[in-house]
Amino acid sequence: MEQAQIDTVDLSVVSEDPACSETALPALDSWITPTERFYIRSHFSEVPNVDVSSWSLKVDGEVERSLDLSFEDLKSLPARSAVVTLECAGNSRSYVTPPAEGLRFGHGAVGNAEWTGVPLHELLSRAGPKKGAVEALFEGTDAGEEEEEGLTLEIEYARSLPMAKAMSDDTLVAYLMNGEPLEPAHGYPVRLIVPGWYGMASVKWLRRVSLLPRPYQGFFQGRRYVRITDGESRPSWEPVKSVGVKSLITRPRHGEVVRQGEFTVHGVAWSGDGAIEGLELSTDGGRSWREAELFGPESAGAWRRWKFPWTPSTPGHFILMSRAVDSAGNTQPASIPWNFRGYANNSIHTIAVEVPAE
Amino acid sequence: MEQAQIDTVDLSVVSEDPACSETALPALDSWITPTERFYIRSHFSEVPNVDVSSWSLKVDGEVERSLDLSFEDLKSLPARSAVVTLECAGNSRSYVTPPAEGLRFGHGAVGNAEWTGVPLHELLSRAGPKKGAVEALFEGTDAGEEEEEGLTLEIEYARSLPMAKAMSDDTLVAYLMNGEPLEPAHGYPVRLIVPGWYGMASVKWLRRVSLLPRPYQGFFQGRRYVRITDGESRPSWEPVKSVGVKSLITRPRHGEVVRQGEFTVHGVAWSGDGAIEGLELSTDGGRSWREAELFGPESAGAWRRWKFPWTPSTPGHFILMSRAVDSAGNTQPASIPWNFRGYANNSIHTIAVEVPAE
Asked: In the predicted model, what is the mean pLDDT of residues B134-154?
């Protein structure tokens, strides 16, 4: 099968090895993020090159009947499509103070795509979960080395979900992205899509689903994607799960020179804990806030676009800030409590622009 | 005259052109910063290579008698020494949010050195300031190109001081740094030293002092080293002058792994507006603060060292913060009001360290 090359227009490289890229914010200013602009988060040196003719998806563990499905078997099952926002847990890490451990993602490790595949519960129901199953473990084809406390570990990428989330209608075993077969960098031939959770849960190059009698504690579950805060008076160690409510200003860009006259500020907003209910914009560095207009398609698990007509009052420098509120009443903080790897930074997006004298 | 090469140990390059370097924080953990570790802020491609035999210092403008002093003339005048902290106005710019325009200095564009030279008022008294003189303008030998609004400008480095500051006992025309002739990068043969003001006032490669009948508005006075904040509801345009109260944790380093048991946290603190009266340290991310001990030499215009014995209560990650108070009652803010070029960031220094289980 011919695989198109990932175009690097509007994608910038965050790391060569592992291959990670993020999207320029103006390129996020649409409902659907085109595949060639979608952020990439790999964990190992090698991007798996899966031969679909020999690939199969195994379903085993605490099940009545193990399954071993070919790509054709999978595609013959009932499918659905959903538009889902994926955000890397390390998105916006560069703006955490003091600097946090990990790849230096800006704000562009997020995107919104249409995913098509088989609801995971279709597979699990066919396999018949046993009573004792508490989690579903997902194994990718990707493997390699990780450094940990001076040791080099040989590991495979794997993550688990609680059974309730695994059985949710929305959790998909996806084989199309924006209507096309997945690109290799996005998990070809098959990846998991877990709406509402940070991207690490949406395991790429999926090859096995195992139901477990007890919680999984592997490397990418117990050593990474964990919010470690400080230990003095409030030790805390908390796995990263659902996506915090967040918004980005996509236009103008930080540092842009904006002409006098009306300018429409654009952006996107999303939350793993509910629908976006409102978006407030400040054009005076947070001293006052006004409601922006939410517009465009609305779909559970997907971001919402917003816009705000702005007429700068004078020439000068302006500080624009966006703050979203979700249906659970969550809003964005000025800054997040610091955590060692800088995960889940959903603080208010702030940019500065210049309006020159005519 | 033989000029030693600047050693790059403990100095890291911030910019190749113009040549700018900053000091690693552990290398700031002493009363005097050795010259070879002292930060460098140049403004142009070329570092002046002044021939001292043909160099002279002119004093002119609104004076009764113009002067033209050779290096030997200057050295024959009454001299004094003072230990003075210099901090670049762009120090800590990298930690301003959103990102500010300018070179990406971390926290290391600061240092404390002994400077020896002639008090400027000795020269000005000999020249006889006229009644109409309101400012003293200082011209350096450095010149080159700057980009501004799409234009390339050919300019020389020049800055002014109000007469009162120029006539202060403390303002020096210095020719020794830490007891040795100035290095070329630090202004050989002669530079101004203006205690209490950000480094841009301490003009290097000084060649002329002119008393002016009206305030100077040249490039590095009116277009740079100006705090431009936002224009929506509180337009602000304010030249950067005196150094805001500030402190740094020099040991441990951000990200350091610290063994269990007692550890002495070290640092430095300074202010352009008075003596350092106290230093508070938090080891729990700002929830509680305790007094550190100020120690070592005390001298007007110089930084003060401080230390704090800390016994981490548990293994884990810890967030350390330092906050100085000066004799004018100023203290460090959690963050500064954003300004376009990120000048004068004196916000609380925050680092994270890890204490492993034994």
From this structure: 91
Q: Are A230 and B316 in contact (CB < 8 Å)?
A: yes
Cα four-point dihedral sign B54, B57, B59, B61:
positive
At A152, list the tokens: 């080099």
Mark yes or no for CB contact B312/A231 under 8 Å.
yes
φ, ψ at B52 (rounded to 5°): -70, -20
Q: What is the pLDDT of residues B68-107, one digit of tens each?
A: 999 999 999 999 999 999 999 999 999 998 899 999 999 9
Distance CA B310, CA B307 (A): 9
Identify the architecture of domain B11-239 in CATH: Alpha-Beta Complex (3.90)
Q: Which of B43, B105, B26, B67 is nearest to B343 (CA)?
A: B105
Helix locations, A289-354, DSSP H: none
Q: Which residues contact B74 (CB under 8 A, 6 or more apart)?
A: B57, B117, B118, B173, B175, B190
Q: Cβ A340–B318 below 8 Å, yes or no?
A: no
Burial (Cβ within 10 Å: 0-12, 13-18, ≥19) of residue B5: exposed
Local structure of residue A222 (DSSP, 8 states): I
* Strand locations in B108-189 (E): 110-119, 135-148, 151-162, 172-177, 180-181
Both structure tokens of A142: 């990707």
Residues of chain A above pLDDT 90, percent: 84
ipTM: 0.72
Angle subtended at Cα B218 by Cα B106 and Cα A317, rounded to the nearest 5 degrees: 55
What predicted TM-score, i.e. pTM, was given to this entire model? Answer: 0.84
Average pLDDT of chain B is 93
Tell me B264's DSSP state.
Answer: E
CB contact under 8 A, B352 and A98: yes
Phi, psi of B121 (to 5 degrees): -65, -25
Is the Cβ pair A97, B98 closer than 8 Å?
Answer: no
pLDDT at residue A192, as a whole number: 98
For residue A6, pLDDT beyond 60: no
Q: Where are the domains of chain A?
A: 11-239, 246-355
How much is the pLDDT for A7?
42
Of B232, B315, B355, the CB nearest to A318: B232
Nearest-CA distance B284 → chain A (Å): 5
Q: What architecture (CATH level 2) is domain A246-355?
A: Sandwich (2.60)
Those residues of chain A whose CB sits closer than 8 Å to some CB in chain B are: 95, 97-101, 228-235, 254-255, 283-285, 287-288, 312-319, 337-338, 340, 350-352, 354-356
Q: What is the DSSP string of A118-187?
A: EEHHHHHHHH-B-TT--EEEEEEEEEEEEEETTEEEEEEEEEEEEHHHHHSTT-EEEEEETTEEPPGGGT
Cβ separation of A319 and B338 shorter than 8 Å?
Answer: yes
- Residue B294 in contact with residue B304, Cβ under 8 Å? yes
Question: In this structure, what token pair is assigned to residue B90?
Answer: 């762009």
Name, in order, each residue with C-beta under 8 angstroms of B73's C-beta and a sequence gap of 6 or more.
none
What does R_g of chain A's alpha carbons equal in angstroms?
21
Alpha-carbon distance of A273 to A288, in angstroms, equals: 26
B11-239 and B246-355: identical CATH topology = no
Task: List the single best residue of A248, A317, A351, A354 to mutate versus B (max B Cβ within 10 A).
Answer: A317
- Which residues in chain B are contacts of A285 at CB distance < 8 A? 229-230, 232, 337-338
Report pLDDT digits (tens) over B11-70.
999 999 999 999 999 999 999 999 999 999 999 999 999 999 999 999 999 999 999 999
